[in-house]
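Shape matters. Shown next:

___
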Amino acid sequence: MASPTDIRKGRVIVYQGAPHLVLEMLHRTQGRQAGFVQTTLRNLQSGSTTTTKFRSTDNVEFLHTTTQKLEYSYKDAEGHHFMDLETYEDTVLPIEIIGDDDCFLVEGNGYDILLVDGQAVRLELPASVEAKVTEAPDAIRGDTAGNVLKPVTITSGITVQVPLFIKKDDVIKISTSDRSYLGRV
């Protein structure tokens, strides 16, 4: 068992019998009272987020984690399949774990998978992804006053607001955090 002062952002701890990822950590002291660590934790099984305080007298159990780069293969009823390019081992992440992030998965691209005690628990998306525009309406002549945007559809099916000069079959870069247009590739 470790002390709560060893808690760091990105580590995985056992809290209420389930693995939780530390999203935020803040060490606080209040005058003559004992210090505490305030954390924001995400349950890796259910996906829920909670804010918790740990006193300096509490014990915390850390889980062994590794990050592995795997290539995305396909999706079926079991979930999303990722392959290790060295051993050709297939790793399946359930659809619940991926959630809405499946729109950023492109077959053949490599993604970081967080493993806790050898079991895949979380997909770590890159900051941005490249996608091909499948549908783009034509720009209307004279509609150039200011920073005008138009909606386009990319290969995964989501709609992104882009500048007027983007056309069908262009490849654009999209932010995975807020699904915004970052530039043309």
Q: What stands out?
A: The helical segments are 95-98. The CA atoms of residues 79 and 95 lie 5 Å apart.
